[in-house]
Design goal:
Subcellular location (chain B): Cell membrane
Protein name (chain B): Peptide/nickel transport system permease protein
Strand order of the largest sheet of chain C: 6-7-8-3-9-10-12-11
Largest sheet of chain C: 8 strands, mixed
Radius of gyration of chain A: 22 Å
Helix content of chain A: over 70%
Helix content of chain C: 25-40%
Number of helices of chain C: 10
Order of helices and strands of chain A: HHHHHHHHH
Number of strands of chain A: 0
Shape of chain A: elongated
Oligomer: heterotrimer
Family (chain B): Belongs to the binding-protein-dependent transport system permease family.
Chains: A mainly alpha, B mainly alpha, C alpha/beta
Number of strands of chain C: 12
Bound molecules: adenosine-5'-triphosphate, magnesium ion
Number of domains of chain A: 1
Pfam families (chain B): BPD_transp_1, BPD_transp_1_N
Distance between the termini of chain C: 25 Å
Organism (chain B): Consotaella salsifontis
Chain lengths: 271, 315, 331
């Protein structure tokens, strides 16, 4: 795909997604949680643009409110995971030796827990909810960002200007913050965009299992979970949230790819 | 070589020990009282104490940890409160579903992704390349449990060709078992195949630009021979790495997909145990899953040695 | 008698974001059976493109126009299946970079015997052939090394393996694209000696591409000098390097240590030819006249009037320069 194509398409989808998430708290076609049993299981266009669910709630409004929840959880977990992961990666790269070895082994350990699994574990200890979901997703992102940061930072640390700064007596913390971090920020942003898509997928999976937001807060994953019972009678309940998830993640991935091409034009084979 | 092996095995053991410790700490040290959770908020203090004793919760933490890990190593995971049977048997039964499911998913994803990725790279910007690109972008973006729902919608609700879920065990014959696992395996495989197609394409493109491919062509090999004899073998290492890294996602996906298709697998066991507050089962299944991920990545590392002779002699 | 190789009006373009860009142009030369030709020129003058065009392995963006005839058979536009029958068996090539030109995951013996195996030889037969080829390229301890992987060999050893691969099909024409550039001076001398001997023993024709006049002087009977994709001078090596007709050749010689034509000394430090003042013009903005005009010490206004035509002289030399008078060439 031409590079501008990816950037435009990904940017447009992501902008739409962001805009929806920002608007939904203030305006949706109908109140997303308003129950109207008389209006239940109405197909798209018969009631509302995308029909109603088993309790007569407007599907489009729920999807919009779900965007807010999904995106806020995804952003919070990526921010958390990126912050912790980057700090660990920088520490490992600048300290080297035993610290490096121990930190990276610790990352291997963390990486052994798929987010759904660590969410179950955390939920068993802490109960379900927004914080548990964020913690579980963020945990899984920490190794991703720390490995990325470490290898990028080690590359930077061999450059002459870093050696010069070190010779000039700058401490490793200042070197990490003044020389390394600005140079790898692009890589981290690219990775964060891609991980945002992954976080949305994971959040959907968690709420599909009931490990995410508690009802009645609308969430894409739970809409899918609820749709299972009515899959024969009301297939739109299963289709609309899935398309929404896939579309949002697709947008973020395309945007991430395009940004990655901009940051490093040599690495262009990934499409 | 032997020394390197020993070092790798030691590191594997250390990782596994750390994994078990993390699970134990999260499940036992974080605020929360499993006995209280199990009995609900209205429980009497003496019944709680009795249950705590029965669960071994009144013992010091290190003792409990050693007891648990020692048991796990010898295959004794304790007895499930809700099922009333040894956890070991539960895990074994459920593995008979999850392992074949995961195996089928990996196989399907490779059968799809390798040819597509190789074809896409060898005809860059051709039709296959576009199909591969669209397929992998969609695959990566689509949740596997939703694919599961769609498959049910199409193949069992609408067409009635396949069962919409459930698993009657392997006693009814291999074919029957495979048939029941087929749709879930497809649901798991498609997103995997998306990632794998992308990685295969990139790896093959990388290798195609290497000098030795030109040497092979200068010898008189045609494009296809150079591709399969020289390019693909050298492109496999990154593909295998991703396959290993993706195993973690596969396991997570299995938890979801098993729930969509109501398959009695390990993921569904963990989930059911969680909803029934049977935390001993949760703890042990989580250990088992995490250990599986660690071991698979270890094996992938070994496979890497096999694929790349340069690593064999330098380390 | 038809020559082994006959190149006529060959040009090669590459596709760039700005469009098709001609790199090599107006290339014409003949090569007889068993003859050795050196192609020399600064980095970026299009030598590798020319070499790759001869063996039909131009990168996807590059295209050749004109005519390349090998024993009368037209190679420009030849389909790949037919070309595969020529590569290795009739035309072989050795590449510049021995460190990356071998497949890292395949044993060297298998890489040498690969074509034999594909043509139906047995495993043992191919292995014996590979072994005798390794002996022919004088790889020490060939019997132990035949099962080695490339990373277990040194640069010089790998270059020998690459030569063995090129010899495996018994080619009539060997194209060597800077085969010694990556090697140190002692190894360079050894490999050049080896190549010269092999060419003589096998009665192969050789095209040796280099930016190093010393290498060319040692290994080839005829020399062609290229600049920015065009030939500026061609003739017997001793004459071209001994009494250059083109100012560019003179400049090249001046930039190299003195009295090269005898080709006896290769001990001098390696150097690129970029010591001529100025830079090679970009292919997208070639000057209207002589391509070398901007750097030429004998530059005069006429030089910019148009590209000087190629002129052949009766003694087998040829030149592209308006300064060269016919009487400058010995009759
Ligand atoms: N596939 C290609 N696409 C675009 N430009 C190319 C391609 N191949 C070569 N070129 C350009 O053509 C010119 C000649 O390249 P070539 O490799 O033939 O030079 P060379 O004489 O072999 O130089 P060197 O001594 O450095 O090997 C260079 O400017 C190069 O950038
Ligand atoms: Mg070259």
């Amino acid at each position: 795909m031409p590079r501008h194509g990816k950037l435009l398409l990904g940017g447009a989808i992501t902008a739409l997604f962001l805009l929806t998430a920002l608007i939904a708290p203030f305006w949706t076609p109908a109140a997303p949680t308003r129950i109207a049993i008389a209006e239940r299981l109405k197909p798209p266009l018969v009631a509302g643009l995308l029909g109603t669910d088993q309790l007569g709630r407007d599907v489009l409004s729920q999807l919009m409110a779900g965007a807010t929840n999904s995106l806020s959880i995804a952003i919070a977990s990526v921010l958390l995971g990126a912050a912790v992961g980057t700090a660990i990666g920088l520490l490992a790269a600048t300290r080297r030796g035993v610290v490096d070895e121990l930190l990276m082994r610790a990352m291997d350990v963390v990486f052994a827990f798929p987010p759904i699994v660590s969410a179950m574990m955390l939920a068993a200890a802490l109960g379900t909810g927004r914080m548990t979901a964020i913690a579980a997703i963020a945990t899984f992102m920490v190794p991703v960002f720390s490995r990325l940061t470490r290898s990028a930072a080690r590359r930077i640390l061999t450059h002459d200007y870093v050696l010069a700064a070190r010779a000039a007596g700058k401490g490793s913390r200042r070197i990490a913050l003044e020389h390394v971090l600005p140079n790898i920020a692009g890589d981290i942003v690219v990775q964060a965009t891609i991980q945002l898509g992954l976080a949305i997928l994971t959040e959907a999976g968690l709420s599909f299992l009931g490990l995410g937001l508690a009802p009645p807060a609308p969430s894409w994953g739970r809409m899918l979970a609820d749709s299972v019972t009515y899959i024969g009678a009301a297939p739109w309940l299963a289709i609309a949230p899935g398309v929404t998830i896939a579309f949002s993640v697709l947008g973020l991935n395309l945007l991430g790819d395009a940004l990655s091409d901009l940051v490093d034009p040599r690495r262009r084979q990934g499409r | 070589m032997v020394a390197a092996m020993v070092k790798r095995l030691a590191s594997l053991a250390a990782t596994l020990a750390a994994v078990s410790m993390v699970i134990f700490l999260v499940m036992n040290v974080l605020p929360g009282d499993p006995a209280a959770v199990a009995l609900g908020t209205s429980a009497q203090e003496d019944t709680l104490a009795a249950l705590r004793h029965e669960m071994g919760l009144d013992q010091p933490l290190p003792v409990r940890y050693v007891h648990w890990v020692g048991g796990a190593i010898t295959g004794d995971f304790g007895t499930s409160a809700t099922y009333g049977v040894p956890v070991r048997g539960l895990i074994a039964d459920r593995l008979a579903v999850t392992l074949p499911l995961a195996g089928m998913a990996i196989l399907l994803s490779m059968l799809l992704a390798l040819p597509l990725g190789i074809l896409a790279a060898s005809r860059q910007n051709g039709a296959a390349d576009w199909i591969a690109t669209i397929f992998s972008q969609l695959g990566v973006a689509t949740p596997n449990f939703w694919i599961g729902l769609l498959l049910i919608l199409v193949f069992s609700t609408a067409l009635g060709w396949m069962p919409s879920g459930g698993f009657s065990g392997w006693n009814d014959g291999m074919i029957n078992g495979i048939k029941q696992l087929f749709l879930p395996a497809v649901a798991l495989a498609l997103p995997q195949a998306g990632v794998l197609t992308r990685v295969t394409r990139a790896a093959v493109l990388d290798v195609l630009s290497e000098d030795f491919v030109r040497t092979a062509r200068a010898k008189g090999l045609n494009r296809r021979q150079a591709l399969f004899r020289h390019v693909v073998p050298n492109a496999l290492a990154p593909v295998v790495t991703i396959l290993g890294l993706q195993f973690s996602f596969l396991v997570a996906g299995a938890v979801l997909v098993e729930n969509v298709f109501t398959l009695p697998g390990l993921g569904r066991l963990a989930y059911q145990a969680f909803t029934q507050r049977d935390f001993l089962v949760v703890q042990n299944v989580v250990l088992f899953i995490a250990a599986l991920v660690v071991v698979v990545n270890f094996l992938v590392d070994l496979l890497y040695l096999f694929l790349d002779p340069r690593l064999r002699s330098s380390r | 008698m038809t020559p082994l190789l006959s190149v006529r009006d060959l040009s090669i373009t590459v596709s760039t974001p700005e469009g098709e860009l001609p790199i090599v142009s107006d290339m014409t030369f003949d090569l007889a059976e068993g003859e050795t030709l050196g192609i020399v020129g600064e980095s970026g003058s299009g030598k590798s493109l020319l070499a790759l065009a001869l063996i039909g392995l131009l990168a996807p963006g590059a295209r050749a126009f004109g005519s390349i005839r090998f024993r009368g058979e037209e190679l420009v536009g030849l389909d790949d299946a037919a070309f595969c029958g020529l590569r290795g068996r009739k035309i072989a090539m050795i590449f510049q970079e021995p460190m990356t030109a071998l497949n890292p995951t395949m044993r060297i013996g298998d890489q040498i015997g690969e074509m034999l195996r594909l043509k139906g030889s047995g495993r043992r037969e191919a292995r014996e052939a590979a072994l005798s080829l390794l002996d022919r390229v004088r790889l020490a301890h060939a019997r132990q090394r035949i099962d080695a992987y490339p990373h277990e060999l040194s640069g010089g050893q790998r270059q020998r393996v690459l030569i063995a691969i090129a010899l495996a099909g018994g080619p009539d024409l060997l194209i060597a694209d800077e085969p010694t550039t990556a090697l140190d001076v002692t190894l360079e001398a050894e490999i050049l000696t080896l190549l010269s001997e092999l060419v003589r023993e096998e009665r192969m024709a050789l095209i040796m591409v280099s930016h190093d006049l010393g290498v060319i002087a040692r290994a080839t009977a005829r020399t062609m000098v290229m600049y920015a994709g065009a030939r500026l001078e061609e003739g017997p090596t001793a004459m071209v390097l001994g009494r250059p007709l083109n100012p560019y050749t003179e400049a090249l010689l001046a930039a190299s240590p003195a009295s090269l034509p005898e080709g006896k000394r290769l001990e001098r430090p390696r150097q690129r030819l970029a010591v001529i003042p100025g830079a090679v013009p970009a292919f997208s903005t070639l000057p209207p006249g002589c391509r070398f005009a901007g750097r030429c010490s004998r530059h005069q206004p006429d030089c910019d009037a148009g590209e000087p035509p190629w002129r052949d002289f009766p003694d087998g030399r040829g030149v592209r320069c308006i300064h060269t008078r016919a009487n400058e060439a010995p009759a």
